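Let us work through a complete example step by step.
Step 1: write down the sequence.
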Amino acid sequence: MPMTRMALVPVVLWLGLGGGVLAPEGSRQEAGGGNSPARIQCSRDTRMVRVPAGTVLLGEDGEGREGRSVEVPEFWIDSHEVTNGQFAAFVAATGYVTEAEREGGSAVFVPPPHWDGSLDSAQWWRFRPGASWRHPEGPESTIDGKDWYPVVHVTFADAAAYARWKGAELPDVVQWERAARAEQRAGRDPLSWAFDAQGRPIANTWQGIFPMRDTGQDRHTGIAPVGCFQANSLGVRDMIGNVWEWTRSSAPSMAGSRLLKGGSYLCSMNYCANFRAAAFQAQEQDLGASHIGFRTVRRAPPSPAARKTASMR
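Step 2: predict the structure and record it as tokens.
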């Protein structure tokens, strides 16, 4: 079930439109084992990455879900999610006020003190007054020292406004999957988007039993700074996990909604397993949350001025 404003409180966050797979409890431990995560030094590269014209296996999701081949024209995409620092530069230049700031709050993940074992998300989602991109956990929290973390609590309109200022736009689902899948030509084990062949995390997801304890096997509990995991063959990072990302594609079965892609740090094996390129979620376009961010694309090479703007923080 997708998150909706009607569900606040509770805020319902599960996978909308059939992209998720509920895995057996305990399978994360088998996948991850006791190994250290495959992780590299966090990148501070703010460039846009060229994605050459090519074919994407749209919706491919392992055995029995081969997807379909779609031709995609050349485009450029941010190498990581838009950061707090980049969004702050936009706000400083334009005076923009986000929807969460205007409305006085946003949806925040709050680990429950007790869990009844069900998937009733009313146990862990709250509408928190004062939560916004500047105060991601509520009015007492801050993003000081977190310029390189993904900006969150942005709605579709907020993300689109930033993109226009930058001379860009939000990706559609085809562009997003093309960038995430890179040069994929055949089926892929769905777990391999988040774990390497030795079962080590290669994306920021939830290890352990959601929603009670994230063991931090990937060295992050909560949102991670951008660029902390290996780039794919195109040079794009963080397409899987960390924060969900807005696309400009409408959700066909939910009026006034857009599709999110990529999953987030809350995706776990016992909850929704959305750490896959095929996964998606329908989201009301005027409702942000503490695990939703975005990145932008361009259909032409970024100009020197655009590259300078992207590096501001």
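Step 3: interpret the result. Residues 9-40 have pLDDT under 50 and may be disordered.
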